[in-house]
Amino acid sequence: MVAWLEASAAGAVGDPGRIHIEGMAARAAVESAREQVAALVGARPREVVFCSGATEAIALATWGAAIQPRRHTVASAVEHSAVREWATRGDHTELGVDALGRVDVGELADACGEATGLIHLQWGNHEVGTLQPVAELLADEGFASKRPADALVHVDAAQAAGRVPLRFRDSGIDLMSISAHKFGGPAGVGALVVRRGVRIDPLIVGGDQERARRAGLESIASIIGFGAAAAAAAARLPTERPANRSQTDSVITWARAADGVTVLGDANDRLPHIVCLGLEGVEPQPVLLGLDRAGVAVHSGSSCSSESLEPSPVLAAMGADADRSLRISVGWSTTDADIDRLLDTLPRVLKDLRALGR
Fold first, then answer.
1. How far is CA 158 from CA 42, 47, 182, in A?
2. Which of 83, 133, 172, 353 is the most buried (most CB within 10 A)?
3. Is there a catalytic annotation at residue 51?
4. Domains of the chain by range and CATH?
5. Average of per-residue pLDDT across 262-271
């Protein structure tokens, strides 16, 4: 709402494709936001393609890569469902992971063949927080020798953007998807970052917006909000990252001493704001309700969507209990008092539920 009011006050509500004062004001606002988003992820502004969110960005990356002569796709079993569902629609190889949720570079290399056109990697996992060593994987000689020269690499960085430093231009990545709401921006806007020189087919056609890479009148207010959030996230990162890490470290320290609770994923090399806990002998739904009554909002790591009742493919791929987990995430508004409330309430909720189950 603030972004929209500011945009209205500045006159940036016209069609940025028109040559009149309202259109030019809107174009200036869009391009300013593009620079802010590019700065956050270490990209060139012209590499940023605005869209409706990371889900669309993933679809654009996958669809766009289909213009390549090769059709085979490689993706790990711990990718977000927006990646997995696209990958499974065609010829693909699914990569296994270790108990921490990390891809093996040898298996990645072996999965590539002459028909491989697109390789999906995730910067940081959305359920357990484990970081994939993207730069090391792409630089590995074994992988480089088996990857076709024109096979594209897409990285889902929705959870990583605004949380850890990103340098797209130095990463070797071809395509990278991000979403504004993950770091405090408005919902319904995101971007696909497309390395300079890479050509992809548009998923949405009917106009030349976004340099003919995504048709449709841009959502000006959302894009302005995206840019403002990106600039704020970049400014907060040096202090917010260690603060979030300290908060989630407190959760991990408690979990390691608690009976029937395990830490899932890599407790060290991980996103600073996510912790996933395994809960022995307790269903996650009543835990969520018990915490919610105390004013603590968390999520079960058992699915990417609360509408799904399926066990978590991520946890199943790691060999963990896919039905009993708790995903805790912190952010710019989380205080140490919030963590204290969680760690005061969660042991009592677990104790009460386990007593009922006896």
1. 15, 17, 7
2. 83
3. no
4. 2-233 (3.40.640.10), 237-356 (3.90.1150.10)
5. 97
